[in-house]
Amino acid sequence: MATKEGRCPICQKPSEKKFRPFCSKRCAQVDLGKWLSEGYRVASDETDEEEANLDKEGSAFEDRSE
Ligand SMILES: [Zn+2]
Fold first, then answer.
1. Is pTM, for the whole model, over 0.70?
2. N or C terminus: fewer CB in 10 A for the chain?
3. DSSP label of 15
């Protein structure tokens, strides 16, 4: 059986000790970039929703007081 660790999660090549769990600096950077872009998207999505909700509540308030 192949060991779970020891394979680059990006390209499935045997990982290099120096860049564990990746096989190279390049794959490590690819993974990091994936993480960053995913985190960015999720974070901005949440902010967007929250802002939209606040906006809705705010305008409803204004409507009521008039
Ligand atoms: Zn790789």
1. no
2. N
3. P
